[in-house]
Amino acid sequence: MINVILTILAPFFGGIVYGIERVVKARMQRRVGPPLMQPFYDFFKLMDKRPIMIHSLHALMGIMYFIAEWFALGVLLLGNDLLIAVFFHVIAVLSLVVGASSVRSPYSVLGALRELMHMISYEPLMVLMVVALYLVVGSFDIKDILSYDGYPILKLPFVFIAFLLTIPMMLQKSPFDVAEAHQEIIGGPEIEYSGPFYEALYTGKWIEYIYVFTFVFLFGGSHYWLGALLVIFAFLFVNLLDNSTARLDFRRMVKFAWGFLIPMAAFNVILLALFE
Amino acid sequence: MGFFSKFRKKSPWILHYNTGGCNGCDIEILSALAPRYDIERFGMLNRGNPKQADILLVTGPVTKNCKDVLRRLYLEMAEPKVVVAMGACAHGGGIFRNFYHVENGVNNIIPVDVWIPGCAPRVEALIDGMVEAIEIWQQKSKEKEYLRDHEKVIKTLGVEDDG
């Protein structure tokens, strides 16, 4: 029941998570920060702007990103195959890339290419993580993972650390916010969206928060308190990392993912396969 | 004025453009974002993107090189939008008035709604100007706005009007 509610109200909860994040970030910088409901005020304000489109495919792909993101979350939460949820997330990101590379703005095209680099970095890790969870639990189904009696995190410490360092890539946070890069390519793929069409991207990002932190929650198994603790830890860790680091080159991001994170996760998976 | 118009005042997003001033005003704007004044507590964000911004904050006398860029930024912003001219240079040229390379202020290029006096204005004056800009912004509708010499501007910029 709770997963149906979470799926249907995903934009709402995601907005609250984003609001909390903005407040936490401000407090980390010793500022007061915006009110908690600030993302919703932005949402309502963007509804009231004059809609300007570049062309219809571009606008459609922005809305497609939102829908596919929501659909991926629905697949994940409503008790289906975890791998399918990962692949639906690929569709969401790909529609963003197609939309962004269909306009003439160089920043937008550059952002689309960098978004692909992001995908190259984190998608193999997502698949490895799902496989590792399968090796521990024996099922791809989210219900079986959430009713598993052991502690998956004790068997998958390296996979968890690798995923923790992947979250900044998925949520566009600071050491790896290569595609968005607000001071450098002014938002990347989202630069040409305005008004109600930008809203689709803005809301899609909130849903991505729920999507990512659901994966973190899975590491707790049937011990929901552990899952909740892991989510809170991951949230604070990612924000701390975001506030204290500068942006890296995209080459270094891909090198870090393929040279360090994926071998570490693969090492954990191999150990698990040998000794189970 | 619909249901959503009430929430406008909660989230004004700023686009800041320097048209050739001395950077004094820009440093004041940056200090408004910093912890001491923290303009984000009113929901204001400094977006570098005209398509998503609501308030165009212009500093500097408009030099001949960047007047077309300024027009273009103004035309790319989606209505409702407000233009704020900050500092003495933006008001009529300031110490650059009647120089050979200067257009003598922002109002000669795009219509200005709020003026923030001073050289450079204090951050308190900036925030006060922003509050006034938000009040004007709330009265505006989302109909398309045209420049005074719209046809000519469109011709010089070499862009198409989206109607």
Question: Please, could you describe this protein's structure?
Answer:
The complex is a heterodimer of chains A (276) and B (163). Chain A is mostly helical and 276 residues long. Chain A is 73% helix and 0% strand. Chain A has one domain (2-275). In chain A, α1 (2-8) packs antiparallel against α4 (56-77). Chain A starts with a helix and ends with a helix. The mean pLDDT of chain A is 87. Chain B has a single domain (2-157), classed as Rossmann fold (3-Layer(aba) Sandwich). Chain B has helices spanning 24-33, 67-76, 88-92, 123-139, 150-157, and strands at residues 13-18, 45-46, 55-59, 82-86, 114-116. Chain B has a 5-stranded parallel β-sheet, with helices on both faces. Chain B is globular, with a radius of gyration of 15 Å. Chain A binds chain B through residues 22, 26, 29-35, 38, 40-42, 44-45, 47-52, 182-183, 186-187, 191-195, 198, and chain B through 2, 4-8, 10-11, 13, 35, 38, 40-43, 48-49, 51-52, 54, 78-80, 142-144, 162.
Total number of β-strand segments of chain B? 5
Number of helices of chain A: 12
Rg of chain B, Cα atoms, Å: 15 Å
Largest inter-chain interface?
A-B, 31 and 27 residues
Helix/strand class of chain A: mainly alpha
Please give the largest β-sheet of chain A.
none
Helix content of chain B: 25-40%
**Mean of residue pLDDT values of chain B:** 85
What is the H/E order of chain B?
A: EHEEHEHEHH
Overall number of domains of chain B: 1
Head-to-tail CA distance between termini of chain A: 34 Å
